[in-house]
Q: What sequence folds into this?
């Protein structure tokens, strides 16, 4: 790798524009190639990235002007694309989840270890000031010892706005696999890995209807649970109550709250990089805003790629790591297993909680 990390993007769908907007302004990152099965989409994305060329996926993988493959394909293709990139000697940073199953994900991590390349994975929202400030507050003992947490993500479904939403309702999708990584990555970052889970799930509707775009009115089948509830036991002893749903129109629920022996902490939406952190203690007697005190400021999707570049330069693990993403995927699978079997299920994987992001740090230097 030279002075800049040369990035090749495979997958020019809806999320790619968010990455492109960020990557063009980040130091030490140069997007050199873009590929998609739809050549027109690749051309359109490459036009947003100065100096980038649109090529076929096989050409991108073989190109020595690509150091890392940014894998923005649909979840069912995550593992296959990652393995192809690793076989070509490329580092990989992928959208969440790491793969459609832990079996596939283990294959990706094992292949990377053999090839001597690094795997990173979204979400990188935990690197922003919102979650990092909440983490700093917990580490400072502001609420004493954490004893419990709640995490709620509810929506009536992505088919209302997404023009091609079918993949959200196929294996590797659903509210747990789609949005769960944001919440579970945040919870693991705040409270540590998960060692045991229970769960229940439901699929109230067998079909969904596309509500926007040229295919509006198209009805398609639902092949996954669209409402999932679980209890997570963290290695430190805290218990989290989790609810992920594509079946709720409106609810006045917190995104994430952590409850401790001396107070409570309200955590911002983990789908975003910033947001208010609010603290209640017996001393304050009311909720007060916690000033920003950790995390990358003005971060956006793509900062995980920049943090990967930093890790390669410094010889340290990436914060949005493959091991963290694997543990989150394992937790999600075990919740669904618990829902199917009606039992508590052990989570056998573990991960190292990433290093905190100092306040004012930049991904190109800390």
A:
């Amino acid at each position: 790798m030279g002075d800049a990390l040369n990035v090749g993007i495979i997958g020019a769908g809806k999320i790619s524009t968010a990455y492109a907007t960020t990557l063009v302004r980040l130091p030490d990152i140069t997007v050199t190639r873009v590929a998609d099965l739809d050549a027109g989409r690749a051309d359109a994305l490459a036009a947003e990235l100065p100096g980038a060329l649109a090529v076929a996926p096989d050409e991108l993988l073989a190109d020595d002007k690509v150091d890392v493959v940014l894998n923005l394909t649909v979840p069912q293709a995550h593992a296959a694309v990652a393995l192809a990139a690793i076989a070509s000697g490329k580092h990989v940073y992928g959208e969440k989840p790491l793969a459609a199953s832990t079996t596939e994900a283990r294959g990706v991590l094992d292949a990377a270890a053999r090839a001597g390349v690094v795997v990173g994975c979204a979400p990188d929202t935990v690197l922003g000031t919102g979650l990092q400030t909440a983490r700093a507050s917990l580490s400072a003992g502001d609420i004493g010892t954490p004893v419990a947490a709640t995490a709620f993500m509810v929506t009536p479904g992505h088919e209302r706005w997404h023009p091609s939403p079918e993949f959200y309702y196929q294996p590797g999708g659903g509210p747990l696999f789609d949005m769960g990584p944001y919440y579970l990555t945040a919870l693991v970052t705040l409270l540590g890995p998960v060692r045991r889970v229970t769960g229940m799930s439901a699929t109230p509707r067998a079909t969904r209807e596309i509500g926007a775009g040229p295919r509006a009115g198209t009805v398609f089948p639902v092949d996954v649970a669209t409402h999932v509830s679980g209890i997570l036991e963290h290695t430190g002893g805290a218990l989290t109550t989790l609810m992920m749903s594509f079946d709720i129109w409106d609810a006045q629920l917190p995104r994430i709250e952590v409850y401790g022996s001396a107070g409570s902490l309200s955590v911002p939406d983990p789908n975003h990089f910033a947001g208010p952190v609010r603290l209640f203690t017996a001393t304050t007697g009311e909720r007060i805003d916690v000033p920003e005190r950790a995390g990358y400021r003005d971060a956006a999707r793509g900062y995980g790629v920049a943090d990967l570049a930093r890790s390669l330069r410094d010889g340290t693990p990436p914060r949005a790591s493959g091991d963290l993403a694997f543990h989150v995927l394992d937790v999600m699978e075990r919740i669904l297993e618990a829902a199917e079997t009606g039992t508590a299920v052990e989570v056998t994987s573990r991960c190292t909680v990433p290093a905190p992001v100092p306040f004012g740090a930049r991904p190109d230097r800390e």
